Fold this protein.
Amino acid sequence: MRSLRKKKHATVVFLTIIYFLCMDKLITKSIRIKDMKINRILLLFTLVALVSFTACGGGGSKKGGGTKKFQSKTGWKPNDSKGWFFSQKKKGEKGWPGMVYVEGGTFTQGLVKDDVMHDWNNTPVRTQVRSYFIGETEVTNYEYREYVTWLKLVFNPSEASYKNIYNGALPDSLVWKNKLSRNDVYIEEYFRQPNYDYYPVVGVNWLQAQRYCEWLTDRANEKALMDKGVVNKDFYENDSYNQGSNHFSTEKFKYNDSDLDEVVNKEKLQKSNGIKSKNERIVAVNRSSSGSLVTKFRLPTETEWEYAALALVGNREYNLYEGKEVQVEKLRGKKGRERGNYLANFKMGRGDYSGIGGWGNDGSALTSDVKEYPSNDFGIYGMYGNVAEWCQDVYRPIIDEEGNDFNYFRGNVYQRKVQNSDGQFQKVEDATIKFDTLDDGRVIYRGLPGTYEKEIVDDARNFRDGDFQSSLEVGGGRVADSTESSFYNSPIRQFRVTDDGKVLLDKDEDNRTSEISNELRVVKGGSWKDGAYWLDPGQRRFKHEAESDSWIGFRVAQDVTGAGSDRRETKRGVNTKPPK
């Protein structure tokens, strides 16, 4: 309808121009030459007025929606210097460095080709995904070393309270071990050798990837506020800060925590947020709505990952997708020096990881630089091959047809901050750090000292799936509030401590009927050790959240605030910026 109005306006404008050109010719022939210039000016003025009138729809209502001018029902104006509340001006959202904007939309999720393995665990379904940012590449060794280096600086491993924080975040280098292959150089050098700086980090499990995303959110906000002068730029030079619990966190900044009083420049904070009031209490209570903050980082959901990998915007004609290309055909070079070569890092066949010497087909035997191969139509690298990637989702063999058709995701665990009796939020103390145990016996922190304690309000990981109503015992005389069911008869993870203090995972010897549990996470994409079968974005696998491997990495994502997309029509291809 909107495009029809545009065409109508364009037609009227065109005919108007033709009409006045003709009239101009007739008039100028019938009047004196000295009046010709005046008549032309009058005609031009009339033409401009008519075109402007037509373009505005003949004086009708303005196009588009949204609040053009806001007036509070309290009667106070935004940012009133005598008021108590300020309204942050809307700013065009920009992606953080290394992040790519993905405009959401509807698409067919799942496998559309014959499933030769007959898993049928990702049958096609029409769904909508919201706009978001996603990492241009997988997280690299360099980026992950930034993380563990910061942990080592702030939480000294030589102190008894902090000894497990740094060690538990390190990648497991033994994922490269193979009893019938010599991989010593990868075990010893892959994570720290500069030649591997821009290769994807591996040996990181889902729990560790979660902690990295939380850390990245805080460091990004810390840097953004430093750049604006809100946080003192010598924050790391001052030995009084960034030691133990006395470090910057986004939540402490939002909730006006006294830990940051000496490092927050209140005048700069007022200026960056447009606060006209000089009252410190007013500035403090409005800090949580600061427009300077970076949206939190997280792992992409399975739906987001698949949508970004397909990049169907490059295969669109108007508002219709022209189909999903056969992925292997899409991965071969079609011209130039890459003609015939594979444009992704995967295993071509038994004993063939890269091609022959002097003519490397994909040129990489194991992992490769994250930008070694061309990006897809979204501008994202490495969605095919190199390493498979963790997703946020809890794994289930079949995605329920009753699942939400907008931003589908299984794995929501809703939490809130724990409050003390005095109304203040409770913090993690050195003596109250909680840990999760990893498969290799190490432990990873749940929350760093100085951050706020969280409690679970609602665990929806098995919503309408693993609860009593979906168990085998329902209707057999068991009461509905029974806490026991055998819907998922999966192995139980039990650890024991040896005499020398080592933690070992014991094998569950009981007969089990399933591996499915709430601790399994979705893994998407193919890797350097996989055949082409796994390169299809519709394929999916799973891994326990505490396990890691040499073929699994991860990338980060962020939500887009506001609408995330708009009704503008763009040329075939990619919208690289979110709407203003």
User: Anything to note?
Assistant: The longest helix spans residues 2-30. The longest strand covers residues 388-394. The two ends are 23 Å apart (CA to CA).
